C-alpha cells in the first residue's frame, strides 16, 4: 500500500501519542484513540474506493491476485508499512473489543450479538477478496494473514477463530478455486449481511489422519454425493457455506457445500475449549452437489488443489492463533507476578518464577520464528511443508506448556474464572488435536 495522506496522518498521530507533550498534558489516550479510529475509518474508505474502482475495471479471471512484489533469497521478518498498520489496527480492536467480550462469550457458549457484523469495522471481509471482484486484496500474503490471526487471538483465541473461519474459506477459494467458483462465492463476502462459512476436515475417530478420510464422495450424473461426518466445526447453529474434505477416488479432495443442502445437518457438541465458537458435528447424508462443487476442478482441470498445502496452511493458521494467545498469557503473567507479593516482595523476584516466565518468552519467540518462516516461504511460492510441520509440532507442544505455566504462575487464582488463564489453558490445547479447519 502506497504511503498516502492517511499514512502520513496516522504516522503523525502515532508520534504525537508517544511524545512527552502528550504525556505531560495527559493527551496520550486521546491521541491513541484518534489514530485507531482514523485507521479504522481509512480501511473502510479504502475498501469502498477499491470496490467502486473494481466495478469499472474488466475482470481478469485468470489472475485475480498479483504475485508478491519482492522476491527474497531469505525470508524477511521485517513488516511493511501496510502490515504494521494492519497489525496496530487489529491489536487495537482486539484490546478494545474482544477482551471485553471474551469471558461472557465463553460462559454463555455463544458468540456475542452482532459479533460477525461488527467485524466489518476492521474490514476483514474486504481484504480477503481480490480487487478484481470488488474487494481490497492486492496480493496473496499468508504472512499478513498470520499477523492478523495473532493480533486477534491476543484479544481472545476463541473469538478470533470464529472471526477468521469465514475468512479462511475465502482464502482457500482465492488460492485454489476456479474462476467460476471465485465469481460465484467471493462476492458474498462483500454483502451487508456477513457470511458464515467454515472448513470441515477433522473427523471423530482415533488417530485421525487428514490424508485418510472416512467421509466419502462419489460421482454421479448430477455431480457428487457426499456421506460422512465432521467434528469441531464452528457455528453449530448453521453456516451458509462449508468446505468439506472427503475421499474421492482414493484421494482427498475439497468440496464446496452450501449450508442449506438437503441431507446436511449440524449437531452442537460441547468441547473443552473454543466454547464461544459453538463447535459441533457436521453430518452429511447423501448430500447431492453439482458438478462444479469440487474446489479447483472444472472441465479443463482435474484439480488445481494441492491438498497437502491446503492442510499445511491450515496448521499454520492455528499456530498464528496460538502465538497471539500465548503472547497474551505472557503479558498477563509478567504484570501479575510483578504485582503479586509474598513474604514482603514480588513473586517475580523468586528464581523459580522468573525462570518460568523467561522460558515462556524463549518458547514464544521460537514458535513465532518457525511460523513466520513457513508463512514467508508459502508467500514466495516455495516448498514449505517441512517448515509448516516443524512449526505446528513446536506450537502444539509449547502452547500447551505455556497455558499450563500461566495457570501455575497464578497459583490458586489460575484455577478461577476471575483471571483468564484457565480459559487460555483450555483453548490452547486444541492445537494438539485438530487438523486444519482454517487456511492462511
Automatic annotation (TrEMBL):
Domain Acyl-CoA oxidase/dehydrogenase middle, first and last residues per copy: 210-287
Keyword NADP: no
Cofactor: FAD
Acyl-CoA dehydrogenase/oxidase N-terminal domain span: 80-191
PROSITE patterns from the UniProt entry: ACYL_COA_DH_2
Annotated keywords: FAD, Flavoprotein, Oxidoreductase
Lineage top rank: taxon: Bacteria
GO molecular function annotations of the record: oxidoreductase activity
Acyl-CoA dehydrogenase/oxidase C-terminal domain ranges (all copies): 309-432
EC numbers: 1.-.-.-
UniProt cross-references to InterPro entries, sorted A to Z: Acyl-CoA_DH_CS (IPR006089), Acyl-CoA_Oxase/DH_mid-dom (IPR006091), Acyl-CoA_Oxase/DH_mid-dom_sf (IPR046373), AcylCo_DH-like_C (IPR036250), AcylCo_DH/oxidase_C (IPR009075), AcylCoA_DH/ox_N (IPR013786), AcylCoA_DH/ox_N_sf (IPR037069), AcylCoA_DH/oxidase_NM_dom_sf (IPR009100)
Family per similarity comment: Belongs to the acyl-CoA dehydrogenase family.
Record protein name field: Acyl-CoA dehydrogenase family protein
Organism this protein belongs to: Bacterioplanoides pacificum
Amino acid at each position: 500500500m502506497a504511503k498516502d495522506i492517511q499514512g502520513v496522518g496516522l504516522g503523525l498521530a502515532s508520534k504525537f501519542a508517544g511524545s512527552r507533550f502528550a504525556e505531560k498534558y495527559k493527551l496520550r489516550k486521546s491521541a491513541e484513540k484518534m489514530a485507531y479510529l482514523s485507521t479504522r475509518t481509512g480501511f473502510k474508505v479504502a475498501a469502498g474506493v477499491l470496490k467502486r474502482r473494481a466495478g469499472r475495471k474488466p475482470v481478469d479471471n485468470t489472475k485475480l491476485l498479483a504475485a508478491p512484489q519482492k522476491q527474497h533469497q531469505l525470508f524477511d521478518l521485517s513488516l511493511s508499512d501496510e502490515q504494521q498498520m494492519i497489525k496496530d489496527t487489529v491489536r487495537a480492536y482486539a484490546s478494545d473489543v474482544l477482551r471485553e467480550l471474551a469471558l461472557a462469550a465463553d460462559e454463555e457458549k455463544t458468540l456475542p450479538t452482532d459479533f460477525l457484523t461488527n467485524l466489518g469495522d476492521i474490514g476483514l471481509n474486504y481484504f480477503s477478496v481480490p480487487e478484481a471482484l470488488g474487494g481490497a486484496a492486492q496480493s496473496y500474503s499468508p504472512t499478513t494473514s498470520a499477523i492478523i490471526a495473532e493480533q486477534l487471538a491476543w484479544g481472545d483465541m476463541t473469538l478470533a477463530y470464529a472471526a477468521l473461519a469465514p475468512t479462511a474459506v475465502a482464502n482457500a477459494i482465492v488460492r485454489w478455486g476456479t474462476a467460476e467458483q471465485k465469481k460465484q462465492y467471493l462476492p458474498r463476502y462483500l454483502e451487508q449481511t456477513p457470511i458464515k462459512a467454515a472448513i470441515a476436515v477433522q473427523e471423530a475417530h482415533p488417530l485421525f489422519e487428514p490424508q485418510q478420510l472416512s467421509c466419502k464422495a462419489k460421482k454421479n450424473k448430477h455431480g457428487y454425493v457426499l456421506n460422512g461426518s465432521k467434528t469441531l466445526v464452528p457455528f453449530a447453529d448453521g453456516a451458509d457455506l462449508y468446505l468439506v474434505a472427503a475421499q474421492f477416488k482414493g484421494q482427498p479432495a475439497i468440496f464446496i457445500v452450501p449450508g442449506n443442502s438437503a441431507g446436511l445437518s449440524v449437531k452442537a457438541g460441547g468441547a473443552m475449549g473454543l466454547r464461544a465458537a459453538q463447535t459441533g458435528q457436521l453430518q452429511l447424508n447423501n448430500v447431492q452437489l453439482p458438478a462444479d462443487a469440487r474446489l479447483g476442478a472444472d472441465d479443463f482441470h482435474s484439480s488445481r488443489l494441492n491438498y497437502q498445502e491446503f492442510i499445511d496452511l491450515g496448521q499454520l493458521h492455528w499456530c498464528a492463533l496460538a502465538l497471539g494467545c500465548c503472547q497474551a498469557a505472557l503479558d498477563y503473567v509478567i504484570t501479575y507476578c510483578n504485582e503479586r507479593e509474598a513474604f514482603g516482595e514480588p513473586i517475580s523476584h523468586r528464581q523459580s518464577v522468573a525462570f518460568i516466565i523467561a522460558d515462556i518468552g524463549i518458547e514464544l519467540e521460537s514458535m513465532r520464528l518457525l511460523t513466520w518462516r513457513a508463512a514467508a516461504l508459502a508467500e514466495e511460492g516455495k516448498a514449505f511443508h517441512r517448515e509448516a510441520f516443524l512449526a505446528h509440532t513446536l506450537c502444539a507442544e509449547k502452547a500447551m506448556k505455556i497455558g499450563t505455566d500461566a495457570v501455575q504462575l497464578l497459583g490458586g487464582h489460575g484455577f478461577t474464572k476471575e483471571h483468564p488463564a484457565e480459559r487460555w489453558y483450555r483453548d490452547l490445547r486444541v492445537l494438539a488435536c485438530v487438523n486444519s479447519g482454517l487456511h492462511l
